[in-house]
């Protein structure tokens, strides 16, 4: 226990700069004053600060104590947590009593965790958690000097040793198990002359009566690293032996002089037996005595001060994030080991290899690819590989033949997009084990689906050992001698820390990473993130356009990397997110590399109904003058706003007529955009759930934050929304069409945009056949109207003759001339082929006019009106019920398909209602006939002409009414069937009604004790 003078290494890399604090008393008591003295001289973020605060918590109390267990001066009284300045600008003190400070009883305070923070509460804080152990009042002993658990010394040096006891006791100091000093008291001091070699243990023991307390530290006597040739076949990282009790570790560390392996096999203590041998820039060590199948956590201690994991390890334990990995995702995950700090690597001999079921997978041709970009985190609520396997039927039904996983290698945190990679050979455990990933790829291959990995090699996170090994703590950047990383990024849009791709070290690392995932996991290729960043000749402050312009050096670097991939995996897909000048992209595309093409804005302008920047011809590789169809143009990707989100938020409209913000209309317009998109040659890509019209903003929960899943099971319920499922079905039909016929890969394509919001795409067989005899010689035309109103469109057909509408159950269109004018509704599209193809359900597109319902009748049931009609629609139709009481029709309700009755409960007595029912889809309406009913005929208690107390005649009446009955002072009121009062006054036996129009009326007569209602008819004069 080292409370008096506790040394903690700063930052994630464990550098030699140290922050110290002391406590007085040396063994603090929870209910007694404690003075904490902090030295911040080695903390750049706290240097030169004039005011500091303590942010403290009770780390061992959270589950046993009532909240809160922390004191945050940003939200509580700051005076109690503010340090006092001393004469030294780097030294601050704070006195507090823990029980008062936390407002907890003493038995709930056993340890205090804390950080020191400056005014800004941001970067101005100590980077590591610090801890104070609270004394139980029992006998304790601790070394105050030295303050480290272990440290290195030179031969023949001296070590000052001071041990303190919490009470007067018999104190005994042993060096290497030999007593070198003993006394009775509370303090023992000793100066040790180092004559030993290797790793030496020093132990102090305090004894009072039967109570005994101990503390220990270790010192390692420096020794020159042994030079020895690396054994044959040893590669960087973990090398497993045929003997499962052995493993050989290898670390590349140019310029370093010593490396020790520390881990569970040596209690995290560097020793001579675990000092690695050196072969030039490579350090290596064979470790024996391991248990087959047992997982061992380990790290490297480099140059006595830098502690890192193995950059080539395939499993990492993370103390900050592993506790939040569900057991269902990663059962029996190894517990983070005591004695370690930071990320640790894991080795395991005697592993059972994954048993691949599919060993001969044949990849789809590049030009036939339909890629589904997928983020495991946001695909299903379980956020793991198994949840994707469980929904592969859904993806297979969509027709995709490739899944592109956003980055899955170990990244910082759990809930990430993955573009912050730290360990490039380890699958992130939050999605499942490495065998879970292999099982997912295996299952995809069994279904004919390729799997592409989103690979991030432009940059890395600071957790990466390649960064930590050569790091400048004062600037929090890579050090100037880092073999892999640039000190300053060499392009304007870099995030995290930039790889130097001109470095031979980086090139070797990149090639190893690329080979590993293709070989070990059987990925079918890569989508490389931000390849435009693979450059070294851009300097800070330069024009951003210079970064995007043609760059031969960058081209050469990317070709070199691609050649290295194809040397071992010639069929591997190589896809770049490059987005550079076309002159540069053309060189890469003609080399055989596929490239992303961002057409999100252009396609969205069409679905929104805006003509500016609505041209989509850049979606076609030949428009860019490329030789091969290596363009993956896309309507959506993870970096763009969703089409439907922007439609319902910003869509164009004609007031009172047509509005692209309407969800159903937005979905229809995405269908039209998709029809055009899939007709254009080349590989295609869907960003997950675009096929369901996903409409949540990219900024929801922050740009890279979690997004709600679409499924009814724990999500938005899109898979139970019939209109969204129609978009899915249309997408599936378009994908099937693209994959089924050679016209989509062997054609002459023309894109006609002579009218901005009218798109025509013509695919002619190559060579062109004007009278095809089979689908091998089929020609195809797609036309779409993205205007806000119906449009007469002159369509240029490749030839005259019969053409068949794909989404209209094979309806034949006879073309007498190559130009034919057709009217398309807003958002309507049509696909014509000159070969009749299998029928496709027409209702998927909502551009077939529904048949109007017939036989509408209205009848009373009690005080309710019951409507009935005949459902004549052959396609899925919504029904709208309209009602009029004489002043125009108003919408009563909208009903789903296959409904033929409705009960109107919201009717008033004495009213004549007229009803009609409309069959409706997103673009057409068809009205039924009308049915009228007078509710007064069915109101209980109202009779024609007389009641038992009142008689009115003549009925029908012409000029007057006469009354009999109802004696006394009597009044009357006449209302029409709309409930409006027409006449009122006193009854005197005779009532003039000559001014009333022809119709049915209700007469109310009342006196002081009674009220009677009588219905009468006013006839013509």
Automatic annotation (TrEMBL):
Family: Belongs to the glycosyl hydrolase 13 family.
Source species of the chain: Fulvivirga kasyanovii
Fibronectin type-III domain boundaries: 849-939
NCBIfam families: Por_Secre_tail
Signal peptide: 1-18
Alphabetic keyword roster: Signal
Pfam families: Alpha-amylase, Por_Secre_tail
Protein name as catalogued: T9SS type A sorting domain-containing protein
């Amino acid at each position: 226990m080292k409370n008096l003078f506790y040394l903690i290494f700063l930052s994630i890399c464990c550098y030699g700069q140290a922050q110290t604090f002391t406590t007085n008393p040396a063994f603090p008591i929870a209910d007694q004053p404690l003075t904490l003295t902090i030295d911040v001289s080695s903390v750049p973020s706290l240097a030169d600060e004039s005011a500091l605060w303590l942010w403290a918590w009770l780390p061992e109390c959270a589950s046993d104590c009532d909240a809160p267990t922390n004191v945050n001066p940003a939200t509580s009284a700051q005076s109690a947590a503010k340090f006092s300045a001393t004469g030294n600008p780097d030294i601050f003190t704070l006195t507090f009593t823990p029980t008062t400070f936390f407002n907890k009883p003493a038995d709930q305070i056993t340890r205090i965790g804390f950080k020191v923070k400056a005014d800004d509460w941001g970067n101005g804080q100590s980077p590591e958690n610090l801890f104070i152990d609270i004394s139980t009042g029992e006998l304790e002993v601790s070394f105050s000097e030295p303050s480290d658990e272990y440290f290195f010394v030179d031969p023949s040096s001296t070590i000052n040793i001071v041990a303190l006891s919490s009470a007067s006791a018999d104190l005994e100091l042993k060096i290497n198990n030999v007593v070198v000093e003993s006394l009775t008291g509370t303090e023992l001091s000793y100066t040790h002359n180092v004559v030993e070699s290797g790793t030496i243990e020093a132990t102090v023991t305090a004894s009072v009566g039967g109570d005994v307390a101990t503390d220990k530290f270790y010192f390692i006597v420096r020794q020159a690293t042994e030079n020895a040739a690396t054994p044959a076949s040893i590669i960087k990282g973990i090398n497993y032996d045929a003997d499962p009790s052995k493993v050989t570790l290898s670390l590349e560390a140019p310029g370093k002089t010593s490396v020790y392996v520390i881990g569970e096999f040596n209690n995290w203590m560097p020793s001579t037996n675990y000092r690695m041998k050196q072969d030039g820039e490579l350090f290596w060590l064979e470790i024996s005595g391991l248990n087959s199948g047992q997982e061992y956590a380990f790290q490297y201690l480099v140059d006595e001060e830098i502690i890192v994991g193995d950059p080539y390890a395939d499993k990492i334990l993370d103390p900050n994030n592993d506790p939040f990995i569900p057991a269902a995702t990663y059962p029996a995950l190894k517990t983070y080991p005591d004695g370690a700090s930071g990320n640790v690597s894991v080795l395991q001999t005697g592993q059972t290899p994954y048993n691949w079921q599919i060993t001969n997978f044949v990849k789809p041709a590049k030009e036939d690819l339909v890629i589904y970009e997928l983020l495991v985190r946001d695909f299903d609520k379980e956020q793991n590989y198994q949840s994707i396997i469980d929904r592969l039927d859904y993806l297979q039904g969509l027709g995709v033949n490739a899944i592109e996983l956003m980055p899955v290698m170990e990244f910082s945190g759990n809930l990430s997009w993955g573009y912050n990679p730290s360990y490039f050979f380890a699958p992130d455990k939050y999605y499942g084990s490495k065998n879970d990933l292999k099982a997912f790829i295996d299952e995809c291959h069994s279904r004919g689906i390729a799997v592409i990995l989103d690979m991030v090699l432009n940059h890395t996170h600071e957790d990466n050992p390649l960064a930590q090994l050569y790091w400048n703590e004062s600037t929090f950047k890579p050090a100037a001698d880092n073999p892999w990383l640039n000190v300053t990024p060499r392009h304007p849009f870099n995030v995290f820390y930039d790889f130097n791709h001109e470095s031979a070290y980086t090139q070797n690392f990149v090639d190893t990473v690329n080979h590993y995932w293709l070989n070990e996991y059987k990925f079918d290729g890569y989508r490389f993130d931000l390849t435009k960043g693979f450059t070294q000749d851009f300097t800070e402050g330069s024009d951003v356009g210079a970064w995007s312009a043609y760059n031969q050096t960058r081209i050469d670097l990317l070709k070199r990397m691609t050649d290295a991939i194809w040397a071992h995996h010639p069929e591997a897909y190589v896809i770049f997110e490059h987005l550079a000048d076309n002159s540069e992209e053309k060189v890469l595309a003609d080399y055989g590399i596929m490239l992303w093409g961002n057409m999100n804005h252009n396609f969205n302008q069409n679905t929104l109904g805006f003509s500016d920047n609505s041209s989509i011809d850049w979606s076609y590789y030949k428009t860019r003058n490329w030789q091969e169809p290596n363009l993956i143009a896309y309507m959506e990707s993870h970096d763009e706003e969703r089409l439907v989100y922007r439609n319902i938020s910003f869509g164009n409209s004609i007031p009172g007529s047509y509005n692209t913000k309407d969800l159903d209309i937005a979905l229809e317009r995405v269908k039209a955009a998709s029809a055009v998109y899939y007709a254009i040659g080349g590989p295609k890509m869907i960003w997950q759930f675009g096929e369901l019209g996903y409409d949540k903003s990219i900024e929801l929960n922050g740009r890279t934050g979690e997004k709600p899943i679409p499924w009814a099971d724990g999500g938005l319920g899109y898979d139970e929304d019939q209109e969204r499922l129609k978009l899915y079905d249309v997408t599936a039909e378009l994908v099937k069409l693209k994959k089924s016929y050679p016209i989509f890969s062997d054609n002459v394509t023309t894109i006609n945009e002579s009218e901005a919001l009218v798109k025509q795409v013509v695919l002619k067989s190559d060579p062109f056949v004007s009278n095809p005899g089979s689908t091998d010689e089929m020609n195809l035309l797609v036309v779409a109207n993205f205007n806000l109103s119906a449009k007469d469109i002159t369509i240029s057909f490749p030839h005259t003759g019969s053409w068949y509408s794909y989404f209209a159950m094979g309806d034949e269109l006879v073309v007498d001339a190559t130009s034919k004018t057709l009217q398309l509704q807003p958002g309507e599209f049509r696909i014509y082929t000159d070969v009749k193809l299998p029928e496709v359900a027409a209702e998927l597109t909502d551009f077939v006019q529904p048949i109007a319902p017939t036989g509408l009748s209205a009848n009373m049931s009690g005080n309710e009106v019951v409507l009935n009609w005949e459902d004549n629609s052959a396609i899925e139709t919504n029904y709208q019920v309209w009602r009029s009481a004489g002043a125009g029709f108003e919408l009563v309700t909208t009903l789903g398909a296959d409904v033929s009755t409705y009960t109107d409960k919201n009717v008033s007595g004495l009213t004549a209602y007229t009803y009609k029912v409309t069959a409706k889809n997103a673009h057409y309406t068809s009205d039924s006939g009308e049915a009228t009913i007078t509710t007064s005929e069915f109101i209980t208690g109202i009779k024609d002409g007389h009641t038992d107390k009142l008689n009115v005649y003549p009925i029908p009446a012409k000029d007057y009414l006469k009354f009999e009955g109802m004696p006394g002072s009597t009044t009357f009121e006449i209302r029409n069937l709309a409930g409006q009062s027409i006449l009122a006054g006193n009854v005197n036996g005779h009532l003039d009604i000559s001014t009333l129009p022809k119709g049915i009326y209700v007469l109310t007569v009342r006196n002081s004790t009674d009220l009677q209602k009588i219905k009468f008819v006013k006839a013509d004069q």
